[in-house]
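The pair is quoted verbatim as follows:
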Amino acid sequence: MSIPPPPGPYQPQESQGPYPQGQYPPPPPSPQGPYGPPYGPVGPYGPQPYQGWGQGYSPYNQPAPVNGLAIAALVLGILCCLPAVGLVLGLIALVQIKKKGERGRGMAIAGSVLSSLGLAMWVLVLATNGASEFWEGFKDAASSSSPAKGECFDSPSGLEGSTYDLDEVSCSGAHDGEVFAVVTLPDGDFPGDSSVTGTAEDKCYKLRSAYAMDAWAVPDDVDVYYVVPSQESWDLGDREITCAFGNTDSDAAMNGGSLRNDETTLDADQLAYLKAVNVPQAAMESVPVDMPEDDLQANKEWAAHMVSALAEESGMLRGHTWPADAQKPVEAVAKEAEALQKPWAKAAAAADVDAFYVHYGEALELENSDLSVTARKALGLATTPPADDEGGTGGDSGGGGDDLEV
C-alpha cells in the first residue's frame, strides 16, 4: 500500500496554467561541470542542496509510525500497576492500528494479555483479603525497625536525637544498646511528643529491674535509653516504645555480653533473693520530688512506705529455704532489714523537718553492705555494690542515672 505525499510546493492541488495537474514544464538548463551538476540534484527551480541524514520528507520506503497507546499498554501490562487501564489502552490501540495502518499490534496484544492477568490477580487478592494483609505487612515493615526484648543493636545515628533504624547485632561483642522492654501504646491519634516521652520515661525506668533484676550486675557506665514513635512513624502504625540499656557516654559502646538476669537466667535461690531485696529498692526509688523542707508530709509517707517494704523483704527472705552455705548470710540480711524499720518508722512520725533528717541519717548509717556481699557471694550473684549508690536499703540497692532519650 503506498501513501501519496502530502500537498507541497512541488504538488499543487489544482491545475495551474496550461499544464495538467501533476505535470510541470521542463526545468531550465543548469550549468554542468565536468562531473555533472555542480550543486547536486536539479529541482524545478534550480540546483538543490543535498539533504543530511534523517532530514526532510521522503514519501517512499518510510515505515508506518508505532501506535503510542500500544506502547503504553505494554508498559502498564509489564508493571501491572494499573491493569484495567493497560487492558483498555491495548484494545483501543488495536482498533487504531487497524484503521490507520500503524505498527505496534504485537505490543498492544502483549499489553492486553499481561494487563488481563494482572487484573485477574488483583480480583483474586481482593476476594481473599490479601490486599489488607499485604498493606499490614507493608506498614509493619515500614514502621518496625526495633529489635525485640533481649536483643542487642547498633544505632547508625547514635543514642541521641532521632534514629530511623536499629541494626541487630550479637550481645557478645561491642554494641550500642540492649533492649530490655517493649511497651505498646494504644491506638488512636498521636498523643504528642511530650506525652509519648513522658510515658517512655515512666515505663522504662520501672521495667528495667524486671529484666536486670540484679542491679549490682549492671555496670556503673550503663543507663536507660528509649526510642519513641514520631508523628511520621505513628501514621505508619508504629505504637512501640523501645526501652534499652546504653552507655552513659552516648558515643561509646557496651561490652561484656548481655545484662539480662531474670527468671530465664537465674536459679531459684538467686531469683528468690533478688525478688526480696528489690522490694525496698523499688520503694527507695519512689522518693518524692520535693525535699522534706518543701513537702514534709509527702516524705513522711515515703518513709512509712519504706517501713512496709523492709518488712516485706524480711518476710520473703525468711520464707524461703536456702542452701546450707547461704542460710546464715541471708539470715543476717533479713535481720538488718528488720533493724532498719525502726529509724524509718521514726522518720515517718517526725514532728518537723529536722527530726525527719535525723532519723533518715540513722537509717543510712545502719546499713551494712558487707552483709549483702557475703550473702550474694554464697548465692553466686554480683558482689560489687554500685558506685553511685546514693541512699540505700540494707546495702543491697542499685543506683540510677539521668534520663536520656533517643
Notes: The beta strands are 42-43, 46-47, 152-154, 167-169, 177-184, 222-227, 240-247. The chain is about 45% helix and 10% strand. The radius of gyration is 43 Å.
